[in-house]
Amino acid sequence: MSLKTKSLCSFKRSALADNFVQVQKIVSSPKFICPKCARVANESNFLCKAKKLRG
Ligand SMILES: [Zn+2]
């Protein structure tokens, strides 16, 4: 399974656990936030409603 094809928002808890190393990379220096799901990512395509984090 590739994280590139799926948004972090739609991940189930088990999928997050299974991909924990990759998930850590995605959220470690976030540039985007999803206001709907309160998730963050370094690339907008990991989020369903990506908004730029200010900073
Ligand atoms: Zn979302």
Description:
The longest helix is centred in the middle third of the chain and has 9 residues. It contains 2 helices and 3 strands. It has 55 residues and is α+β, with helices and mostly antiparallel strands. It has one domain. The model has no long low-confidence stretch (mean pLDDT 89). It is globular. Strands 2-1-3 form a 3-stranded antiparallel beta sheet. The relative contact order is 0.24. Bound molecules: zinc ion (ZN). Zinc ion binds next to loops.
> How many domains make up the coordinates?
1
The tally of strands reads 3
Helix content: 25-40%
Q: Strand content of the residues, in percent?
A: 5-15%
Mean pLDDT: 89
Order of helices and strands: HHEEE
Query: Quick one: overall form?
Result: globular
Uncertain ranges: none
| First-to-last CA distance | 32 Å
Query: Number of DSSP helices?
Result: 2
Describe the biggest sheet? Answer: 3 strands, antiparallel
**Structural class computed from helices and strand pairing:** alpha+beta
Features:
2 helices, alpha+beta, 27% helix, 55 residues, 15% strand, 3-stranded antiparallel sheet, binds zinc ion, globular
Write the layout of secondary structure elements.
Layout: H1 13-18, H2 20-28, E1 32-34, E2 39-41, E3 51-52
Antiparallel strand pairs: 1-2, 1-3
Bound molecules: zinc ion.
Zinc ion binds at residues 9, 34, 36-37, 39, 47-49.
Short description:
This protein has 55 residues and is of the alpha+beta class.
